[in-house]
Amino acid sequence: MIENTYIFQCSKDNVNNSQEIFKNCYLKNSFSSASQVIIHEEDENFRIDAFGHFYFSNSKNIYPYSDSNHLLKDLSISNPIEFLNSIAGGLYSIWILDKKNNKLYASTENFGATALYWKATETSILLSNNQFALNSECNFDEMSSFEFLIYGYLPLSDSLFALTKRLQPNKLIMIDLKTIKLMLVDKKSFAYLAPKNRYSNQDEILEKMQKAFQEYFERIMNLDSFFGLSGGYDSRLIAAYLKNTNSHAIHYMNSDLLERKAASLTAKLSNLPLQMEIFPEEAPTLYHDNMRYQYLSISSFEYSHVLHLQENAKLSNAKFYVDGYIGDTIFGGTYFEAKRKNIFYLLKYLFFQESKDEPLPEDIHEWNKIISDREILDYSKMDFLPKDSIKNHIELKTKEVLGSIKENIYTKEDLMEKWKHVTRARCMISMGPTGINLFMPACVPFLDNKILEICLNTTKNLRSMDRLYNLFWKKYFLEYAKIAKARTGSYAIYGNFVFRLHHIFNTLYKKFYEFFFSTKDRYIDTKSYVFSDKNSALWMNLRSDLSKLPLSIREYIEKSDFNSLVKDERFFLRLMSLCNYARKTE
């Protein structure tokens, strides 16, 4: 069985005896007996199995580190659906076996970042955190494979396999154990308020945010923790709330000295030890065996550095890991910015006019013109791809996703934000925190239900592009506001107008500098992975193992030389990743 994987199996049984039914519903996993991420409780009425960590709104700490286990007690005075809807946050998948009613319930956190796959046959239903564990003898779906090559992950398809589905954020699974029938049930999840009802009082919002973050970090600050500290705002917020605790941070040598300086100053201000490292160019060679279970939602060698971060988390001996993933899209409001970055956009950005809360078109077919996919490759230049079929696939899947998120969306900015959270952000979380969550609880503050609700229901103009973030730093963490934000080079202490003016100047300066001067001191990039001699043997081996790839892709690789494959290094790394995943299904 693949390492750090669980499979929950429900098989059809002709006997009406409840005990016999339960014998045909079982969990098997390949986690260590000392694993910190497996939770199990059982009595005569219910059995609860959980993977990861979670907490309730009144919890003083997190499971599995709760002082006393009250899960079964809480469940006995409600029902499984109410119980699952009452979970306030975490990164988890959970199953509840209702022995009296012969039902099995399964769910993940409201963001749907934790992968929960299912595969149904005539006689059984399989649930797993790993799609490969359910498909050792199946070939990849051709259209899903093409989608992976285009994006580098699967924003639209559930999995690489046609019959394997992934649980979506706003649903939970209910299985009737007598008939082995699976139903998807609506789950309580975040809903936007109508624009006129959104939070707009600046001081009240900041006070709510401060209380919500304090409440969140009080659950974890007494445990040894580990986190990555960049020069940005999200990890800086973690450092600020974990000041003077038993926590330590790691910083990777990023693209410029500003990031290193910001990370060092933040660690010093928080009185936390800081480990400095460099991403290894040979990360694909070092960690490709781990991709089959640590990139649970499918990712590419482009993100091999994340596997190095996961390795450091394992070696840290910390009780849990904290990650600021997607804070820029929740608190910072970056998923609804204008798409055309020209002189007019810069002026709108400078004078806080980039978001207008424009109403959505009534015709859902018009929504396609609003959403954007910044990571898509120009697949029209890939001669071997069946372009018409891919276009139809993307249009069909896009329509399905839009249909699933259309409720409680009022403006174009809402749609842009929700689309990106469902198609991109939860995939990004699955690469980092969810992979670490296989070894220790990986806490993501911005997935907390209360924090999500306050941020996403704050008026867009106030949230847009770090405006609210800067106000927060000035009011509650003034010393941290005096540290420049990496990439923008701006300081929250000077106010939002100067922050944005400084940001524009630094962006233009960087473009000028990179055009006229070489930059040796750079963040690890995809070219380093492709052309490093340390990875050349891996690329050769993967190209020779094509048995599971769709025929059109296999033929293309066999007739192409290395130079033609690496014209677009992102495409090459995705191609090699697909070969690597194919190997792991053997």
Rounded radius of gyration (Å) = 24 Å
CATH class of the domain at 6-142 and 159-186: Alpha Beta
Averaged pLDDT, please? 86
- Share of β-strand residues: 5-15%
Low-confidence stretches: none
Distance between the termini: 11 Å
- Number of E-type strands: 16
The number of helical runs is: 25
Largest sheet: 6 strands, antiparallel
Overall 3D form = globular
Overall CATH architecture of the domain at 6-142 and 159-186: 4-Layer Sandwich
Spatial strand order of the main sheet: 3-4-5-6-10-11
Query: Helicity level, as a percent range?
Result: 25-40%
CATH topology of the domain at 6-142 and 159-186: Glutamine Phosphoribosylpyrophosphate, subunit 1, domain 1
Given helix and strand content, the structural type is alpha+beta
Summarize the structure.
With 586 residues, the chain is of the alpha+beta class. The chain is built from 25 helices and 16 strands. It has a six-stranded antiparallel sheet. A five-stranded antiparallel sheet has the order 2-1-8-7-9. Strands 14-13-12-15-16 form a five-stranded parallel sheet.
